[in-house]
Amino acid sequence: MYRAIICDDEETVRNGLRKHFDWSGHKIEIAGIFEDGLPAFEYMKMHEIDIIITDVRMIHMDGITLAQQASELYPGVKVLFISGYADVEYLKGALKVDAVDYILKSIDLDELDGVITKLVKQLDKERSDRNLIREMEEKLEKSMPLLRVRLFEELIREHGNQEENLEKRVRFLNIPLDSDTRYVVLVMRIRHRSRREILDPLSEKEKQAVSISLEELFAEILDNYGAKVAFKERLMEYVAILAVPDEEYEQNLLDAAEELYEAVRKDMQMEISVGISEPFCGLVNIQKGYADAREAISRSYLIQQDIPISVKKYKDDDTKSLKEQAEKEIARGILGGDVQAAKQALSNVMQYVRKIENEDTRQNFMIALLLLPAQLMNNMKPEHMGVYASQTRLLTVFLQCGGINEQEDMLLSLYEEITEHLKKMSSPHTNTVVDCVCQIIAKRYMEQLSVTSLAEMVNLTPAYLCVLFKQAAGKTINEYLTQERMNRAKELLSNSNIHLYDVCYKVGYFSPSYFSRIFKKYVGMTPREYRESRMVSLNLKEEGERE
Predict the structure, then answer these.
(1) How far from chain centre, in Å, is Cα 240?
(2) Phi and psi of 183, rounded to 5°?
(3) What tens digit of pLDDT does each residue of 21-73 get?
(4) What pTM was computed for the model?
């Protein structure tokens, strides 16, 4: 129902309008009748009105003034003027206040019916439009969490975004980020051992419940350390963007990461790794910060004993590639039992380390070289790690050295000692890691596996894992993966009910033509030729059995 008032200084008009017109049939309730505009307006201050039927001329407040003031109270109010004067100027004044229409005295009820019908249709449409807008706003409000998640994913993955566009979107979604504040990205990742032992046996519903609990714990802890945004990127990975307004931010972040590590281990019985990027400004740089934090996890730029916390310290320049080459050569020497090769690799890289001008960068590089062998023994029990059983003690002694020359001498001694130690152990850890990788490949060969993803699953860097695997298996990881896929493909091709292109997809390839080339290279014939030869062999075997 719509609420209306009648305002006219003639009693016969007021009573006639109230009694002789079917207001309820038009969904209208007469809320009040007044002889002047002034009391009518006072009533409207306390009661919302949809329709005003008013005379133009009245003593204390005329109809035009009433309509003007009422429109300020209720912008959507509709006004119907009634006038006993055929005065064009009065009618023009009435139309300036958006009157729906006007009628002249004496009132024709049929004419009034037509005008009121038109007025109610306008009110119905406006109400319908308002309801539609309200529904759209409610839907938008409900979808805001999803829109925020999508923007978070875009911030850490998409290239080519414009800073101005991102600023508009974060403001619209009420996300507390801006282009001027200095931030870091922190990534928490569940370690593969915890996933294998705790999460893999759970149902999908149970996994999601655990994930929600982890996300809440993650957000709660980091909120105390300046986190502006915290969200789940995937089941195994959680991302936070933290503000770091002052220069003394590193200790605060390490405290946050350590508290996070201890809380997850205590409350969820899981082990995690934490990576932290360098500080940056600009929303478009969040993507690089995320990549740096993930890279830091695999590279241990700064590590605490028993707590896998890493801080990205190196920019993507020659220092990074130099470090990667040093890691590869030194690891090959240590794992291969070749002390001289490891020492020579260290001597080569030290020529360049001494040229690094920034003292902090040079020192962090040296710390990375110190802790490199610990990565080769990741997941080994402390009693099997020799001199690296206590990394805290090693780091303390290392930092007390009298300069870079003494630190180099200490590294040479440590590399020799750990190389001999691993030779005596006959590489039990290496065999364990390689067996684990082979089991993963056997189980997940149809997925898009890479050396990087496999290295993450066994908590090693890709370079370390390549060296370990090649030494133990006699072939590279990619060669082993391809061999496993080809063996599975041959099994599937022996079944004539499976289409050739389905075989391709089932063993982890997207392109049938590429799969065919690889298969021919390894087997000596195309998949079709192999199937035909198998069918011929099976037919001959069946004929021989029947005879």
Answers:
(1) 10
(2) -125, 165
(3) 889 899 899 999 999 999 999 999 999 999 999 888 888 998 888 888 888 88
(4) 0.47
Residue-by-residue DSSP string for 254-268: HHHHHHHHHHHHHHH
Separation of CA 136 from chain center: 25
Distance CA 372, CA 391 (A): 11
d(CA 34, CA 118): 24
* DSSP-assigned letter for residue 307: B
pLDDT in tens, 111-141: 888 888 988 998 889 888 888 888 887 877 7
From start to end of 252-364, where are the E strands?
A: 272-276, 280-281, 309-311
C-beta of residue 334 within 8 angstroms of C-beta of residue 415: yes
Residue 140 neighbours by CB under 8 Å, 6+ apart: none
Those residues whose C-beta lies under 8 Å from the C-beta of residue 258, and which sit 6 or more positions away, are 304, 307, 309
For Cα atoms 459, 463, 467, give the angle at the middle one, nearest 5 degrees: 100
Q: Which amino acid is at 265?
A: R
Give kind and range of the element (H or E) at residue 116.
helix 109-157
* CA-wise closest residue to 94 among 114, 75, 66: 66
For 132-197, give the DSSP string.
HHHHHHHHHHHHHHHHHHHHHHHHHH--S--HHHHHHHHHHTT-S--SSSEEEEEEEEE-HHHIII
Q: Give alpha helix (H) positions in 47-108.
A: 63-73, 88-95
* C-beta separation of 528 from 490 below 8 A: no
- Contact predicate 312/476, CB 8 Å: no
Q: What is the pLDDT of residue 546?
A: 61
Quick check: helix, strand or coil at residue 445? coil
8 A C-beta contact, residue 277 and residue 292: yes
Helix axes 462-473, 359-376, angle to 10 degrees: 30
Q: Are 2 and 25 in contact (CB under 8 A)?
A: no
**Count helices and strands in the chain by DSSP H and E runs:** 22, 11
CA distances from 82 to 34, 96, 105, 134 (A): 14, 15, 7, 35
CA distance 521 to 515: 10
Nearest to 356 by CA among 348, 367, 366: 366
Q: For the chain, what's the residue count?
A: 547
Q: Which residue has the tokens 């790794």?
A: 273
Regions of the chain short of the pLDDT cut 70: 84-100, 247-248, 298-322, 378-381, 425-431, 459-461, 463-464, 541-547
Q: How far apart (Å, rounded) are the C-alpha atoms in residues 183 and 167?
A: 15
Please report how many Cα atoms fall inside a 13 Å half-sphere around the Cα of residue 502, on the Cβ side.
8
Q: For residue 472, what are the CA distances in angstroms to 105, 339, 434, 477?
A: 106, 19, 7, 11
Nearest to 315 by CA among 263, 364, 386: 364
